[in-house]
Structures
1.
Amino acid sequence: MKKNFLLTDEGNKGAIVKKRILQYLIISGESSIADISKEIEMSVPTVTKLVSELIEEGFILDSGKQNTSGGRKPNIYGINPVSGYFVGVDVHRKLVMLAVIDLNGKIIDENLHIPYELQNTPEALEELCRIINVYIDNLPIEKAKIFQVAINLTGRVSTSSGYSHSYFCFDEQPLSQIIESKIGIPVMLENDSRAMAYGEYMCGVVKGEKNVIFINVNWGLGSGLILDGKLYYGKSGYSGEFGHISAFDNEIICGCGKKGCLETEASGFAMQRILMERYAQGSTTILADTLKEKGGVSLSDFVDAVLKEDVLAIEIVEHIGLNLGRWLAGMINIFNPELVVIGGPLSLTHDYIRLPIKSSMKKFSLNLVNQDTDLVISKLGDKAGLIGACLLSRSKMLDIL
């Protein structure tokens, strides 16, 4: 490869048009010079020159003559998938998931269960960087061909500035720059719920809808918005804090430090609190032994109990679903989306959470608005954020978003 214009600050017209050519070929597949020229509205000689440069730089392959009937057969061109790679890192409370895609978006490697303790400490940051470095060093590709690493974190994350204000926020320097200095590859930070929304939009349950609300029901509660086919960030890049709507007149302190947030009654943390309260009051549950031994349960323990038809667990997930649905109704009234996607660990309870959400949504939203909104469960499951991180990294670098 002669050079990689994607990794420079080059802002000339040629570099911009090259990105547009790559965008088109990624989305549409192999095409002729004439088709590319028509799509990006540039002259055939200009496109021919830039395609030749992209071939020389290794980004495009010449697939030879197109198999057409009659007339002069044009050459067709497509993405060279091995010309570049993008790594996604999805950080959870107890583990890290990593994957890498090629330039065509195909996953070529993944590691889904690396133990990790997410804490707001320098030691936890060092461990995260070590995990990323070990993963990259063991990949069967050249490190120089990895164009970017995208890292998902929960909480308030600004992709544009590279700052995280929920974890690893103990340095004035942007977190993205700190990690980049430790792994030697450009780094992009993303909020986990937005990455999950993008993963579902690109290759999950979304089938052409352009206005989508994604809800991540995890230990906390987040959301990602797709508006008119584009991921919505807001002015400062902190959109999607659905869990911190002031929803209840209670004295429960949320993780954000305020009281009465939606998250206090509709999240994994809410599940844990309610489960322990009900158990202490004498309710029976198949989770009793786990509660005695560990003083709490994991989200997977809880989901398993629901699927085994544990009455207490079902009552709690219904409570969470009804609260979610009521406040989702407000989102539906505001945004009038085609699709609402429920994701995150608690979505694995399927209809146990979907049906109370649907009932509450219908009850509290306007009929004229909600009749065009479908409610579905995530297709990608726990890989939604990881896939979204990989694809967002590529999309950001190629200006596809």
Note: The CA atoms of residues 115 and 218 lie 18 Å apart.
2.
Amino acid sequence: MKVHEVFAYLSVHDAAAAVDFYVKAFGAKERFRLNGPDGRIGHAELDLGGTVVMLADEYPEYNLRSAKTLGGTAVTIHLHVDDADALIDHAVKCGATLEMEPQDHFYGERGGSVYDPFGHRWLIGHTIEKVEPEEMQRRWDAMSQG
């Protein structure tokens, strides 16, 4: 068996507002949406630079609950961009909550993180240097030892 693709699939408490936010804050392009008879979005697809993120409203009757309802998320979505500082600033201006200011990291990336208004965490970064895994481990070890 071969895996062909992996998609992030977000359950949100207001999918229509989430689509609007992701378009405005991250430059996503809405591919399509399926509206349910009760007004909830049953499925929507967004294109973020050639990568698809799927989302839908909460459907508690199918045990599909949002990060906001659950009080947090264990998943972080990483956006690799041209200018992390600019996108983080823009996302915050669009309503995201800053978690971590952009900074240079040992693994060769400059980045920070935000929470969107729907409870999902986004790590946003760009490459500042190519670092081989062995060097990353050395830096991690040094950082971990203080």
Note: The domain at 8-144 is CATH 3.10.180.10 (2,3-Dihydroxybiphenyl 1,2-Dioxygenase; domain 1).
